């Protein structure tokens, strides 16, 4: 089974072909992506936006922070594994010790004493691992319910779910709690960043182009991808005024 999954991932990575020379925004599936974007925005309008505001306005901030801490702590084993695969031993050590300290002194991660020790963590994912290994970014994608992505990050997303140490090691009856905390953290983030998200989705002249611009720029900056030194927004002149 692990061998089959590895072959499956390799097949998906092979599909992440590099963008044509000189093209910094490669979106060959724009029609399909725009359809997914419209569906995602409808879900946000009907469910996520309302749920986030209700959550933020009724749940006290310390409780929201504890839920976010708990969910963030659960992501650390996966981050440590990816740091190892990326050949970054310092990040492996930091993520591992942050997890151990917050899981014990922080009461299963509800609190964050590790930060007081200078262990802020090194968030990462399998999409970044593929980047370190030299896999190209691939085409831009808008995933159902997930939102902006790329072919490489979509493969990484699947791998992170399948290889998540927490998912593998946790008892079955505890996995629901882990999923619930991560969903709660997602709703909490939707509330905390509602200004930026609402501005992008509901106030932009072209919310799809704006979301694509923000995602690609922030992701490339996060990965330190120097192959994209500039970013030409094809909608800048059209909607700039």
- Please give the number of β-strands: 2
Broad structural category: mainly alpha
Mean pLDDT: 90
* Parts with pLDDT < 50 across at least 5 consecutive residues: 231-241
Described by strand count, sense and barrel closure, the largest sheet is:
2 strands, antiparallel
Count of DSSP H/I helices: 11
Secondary-structure element string: HHHHHEEHHHHHH
Helix content: 55-70%
Task: Tell me the count of domains.
Answer: 1
Blueprint of the fold:
Blueprint: H1 2-14, H2 30-58, H3 61-85, H4 89-104, H5 126-132, E1 140-143, E2 147-150, H6 151-163, H7 165-169, H8 172-192, H9 194-202, H10 207-223, H11 236-239
Antiparallel strand pairs: 1-2
Helix pairs in contact: 2-8, 3-4, 3-8, 5-6
Give a quick set of tags describing it:
241 residues; disordered C terminus; 2 strands; two-stranded antiparallel sheet; 66% helix; globular; single chain; mainly alpha
Structure description:
- The protein has 241 residues and is mainly alpha-helical.
- 66% of the residues lie in helices and 3% in strands.
- α3 crosses α8 and α5 crosses α6 (151-163).
